[in-house]
Design a protein that fits this description.
Structural class: alpha+beta
Number of domains: 1
Number of helices: 2
Helix content: 25-40%
Strand content: 5-15%
Largest sheet: 3 strands, mixed
Length: 85
């Protein structure tokens, strides 16, 4: 929210002057104009796996650490423009 407030206070235009992408996908992201592009994370799955790993750590403290990588999804809407190199 703070970043969006700063964009508005500087009167920057998205996506003409600034591309804007945020994490998660709150319902209000599509209510703004332009609609905000997001990286949607599998939050339910993150919580489920974190709970499982915590219980395993409590019950088996000697168990090796486990690394988990989950896929995220980019949902392109109107707030990001073409990349300029």
């Amino acid at each position: 929210m703070g970043a969006l407030e700063e964009v508005q206070s500087r009167k920057l235009r998205m996506p003409e002057e600034l591309s804007f992408v945020m994490f998660d996908d709150p319902e209000w992201a599509t209510l703004l104009r332009p609609k905000i592009s997001v990286v949607q994370q599998p939050t339910h799955e993150i919580g489920r796996i974190a709970g499982r790993l915590l219980m395993e750590r409590i019950n088996q403290p000697e168990k090796p650490f486990e690394s988990v990588r989950l896929a995220a999804e980019f949902i392109e809407r109107d707030s990001n423009g073409p990349c300029k190199v």
